[in-house]
Amino acid sequence: MDESGDRAITDDSMADSRVEQVDAASLLQQKRCCEVELPVRRDLLDAQFQGYKLSLEELPSLRIATLAGAVGSEWGASQAQELTSLQHFRAFAVINGLSIDPWSAAAGDHFAVYYFNQQRQLVCHFVPSQPQASLPANSAGQIVGSFSDNATVESTATDAVPLCGSVQFADAQHCVVTNGRGRLFVHTGARHTQTGQEWTWGPVVDYVCPESCLLQTARTVVSGGAVSIHLVVLYVGKQASKDASRFVTVLEWIVLQAVGSSWKTQRVRRLEGTSAPHYIAVEPPGDGLSLVGEGIFKIVFDSQRVVTDTATPADEVMEEQPPVDHAGLGKRSCFNTGLAAPDDMPSSFGPDDLEECDSFADETYNAAWMRFDGSTEAVSHRADLSGRQLLFTATVSPDQMPVMCIRYDVDGLVYQPIPPEAGSEKVPWEHIATFNALGYVVASKQEKKFAVCSTALRFACVCDGNRNVYLYRNEVPVGEQSVLKNRKTGQTISHVARQHVLTLNDAELPIVGLAATQQAVVILKKNALTLIYL
Q1: Which helix (H) or strand (E) holds 292?
Q2: What is the pLDDT of residues 369-404, one digit of tens each?
Q3: Does 205 fall in a domain?
Q4: Torsion angle of alpha carbons 85, 77, 70, 441, nearest 10°?
Q5: Do the domain assignments include residue 98?
Q6: Are 289 and 267 in contact (CB under 8 A)?
Q7: Which pTM does this prediction carry?
Q8: Exposed site from 36, 118, 137, 412, fewest CB < 10 Å?
């Protein structure tokens, strides 16, 4: 059994990974769940794809100054001395500081983008959806919430290092914010009136996260006329064990209900794992939680019921390993498997001779998609994603869970998770689109920082840390007015996929956020928002 996905690395042993034996009962539970395979629609694959043609077309753009400087992943980088484990680094080192309200993007000629500035204020800009649309009155930005230390709504939750705030949109009427210091706030009401006034925020009065946290997802659920908000926060805490130097990644699945102008927790469920998940979403009915992560996650706490962990002897779930034939192993095999090479084996080369491709250090090597059932708190479905790179996630429709783009050979396959029906064995995934050769493209971008796609799945966008933005558009017909031929073969090309390479100004400033709508890409730097229209 592969245990390399369950590890905790502290600052004292960052160079030497310590592999921890996973919980036997959790492994047995996941073995009993429904194992599913990723479906692949062959009609969405193009074996004859000819690649992307570099376009020199000048795309329309718009540049808007930020208010008091935007923050994002560089905030986490500034706290590097306080990030004491690999788990902290994976959770907080790269934070996309830009959010688009998906309900505003589908509302008309303008959409709303949000970010936190250096004064811990939530800033909103209304920007045109199309290049020919006029600028709205508040395109320069407005402050819709203040969460600084001297604000009246602020209450310091913890002595931990504060993170930048994060925002999620539960529906068209509810917006949830965490201030980065463990407190949660909810805004109720219309967000698209463009009044220019600061919003009213109702605090969650009975919840304080024990550590600095990030808000991962939020969704409104209506059941029997009652409205509740399901949300998930992520933090890294100390492991409750004899070895207090170890850390554990924690996800808290919280259900909120309104009490007057404030909010209270109705239910809290806590999951623990070995690394920050790459994807997490609450199902629209609120019946389940889907996540893509490395190693094992399990529910360890529920405020409404006692969580029991069936005591299962380890030998009942540990697969018996055959004896290792050291004589049949090369020195390289011993390095890759973690086995100690026999003393009499010739030392042809050492660890310094290994190349990057010889390592299993990729974060998705032991990744899996898991669905936790909200009623049984067990893993109901699981899909192995070992070796498959998760390229990006995106919200295509606000009423559905975010989609995932997963590398398949050289392509990027877009999957839409679907809540499973009771008693149905149908795979709760749907392959809805393909970005040709995107897996190959992303693998070649060694400096990649963020990646997104349009809500219409018309194009994908990749950016590096400072200045370059790469756009990859799906194939479109060449048109009746022109003829395009392959110079070598003479074959007439009827469809062409185009690539755009854009260079941003202020190359010394990092890109702190990236998002996309149906026709626009939005890039956030500390000093400016840049919109590119396609």
Answers
A1: strand 288-294
A2: 999 999 888 898 899 998 889 999 999 999 999 999
A3: yes
A4: -90
A5: yes
A6: no
A7: 0.81
A8: 137
